[in-house]
Amino acid sequence: xxxxxxxxIDSDFIDxxxxxxxxxxxxxxxxxxxxxxxxxxxxxxYKFEGLILPTLFSVNTFLNSRGKPPIPWLCVDEGAVNPIxxxxxxxxxxxxxxxxxxxxxxxxxxxxxxRFAIALGIALVSSSEITPGKKGKCVKVVTRxxxxxxxxxxELARKGA
Length: 161
Fold this sequence. Notes:
The chain has helices spanning 11-18, 56-66, 78-85, 148-160; strands at 23-27, 31-36, 39-45, 52-54, 73-76, 90-91, 95-98, 106-110, 117-123, 137-144. It is of the alpha+beta class. It has one domain: Roll (Sulfate adenylyltransferase). The protein has a 6-stranded mixed sheet. Strands 1-2-3-4 form a 4-stranded antiparallel sheet. The radius of gyration is 15 Å and the shape is globular.
């Protein structure tokens, strides 16, 4: 994989993290989670060394409270949801809407009604290359709903509440 770019994170999200009183890191076999005031907010997956991105938990919390995800996003059609939840990467034909992002940028994947994110990943192509009729993968999924990272985030959030 090419060199990962700096994570384009919304400034409001960063400001929320800066205001935290208590910050700690929880280490797991394949990843670590950075917890801010009881909120499992950031993730570093060892498979993508040096990449720190918001957790799916914090993306959905931010989306729910601010009406937008804290990182670039794409929205998939209904037919793409179950394969992604089972661990598949995102394919270009399943993408219905997107914001602008470059190749190698972290992105979140929204379900068809854009109410919540179902996955986080790394863009394999830029958003301008995701066009109707094109085929192939466009996002390498790092974490998704109901995987181990999601389960650990829920545990940490319950402890912090």
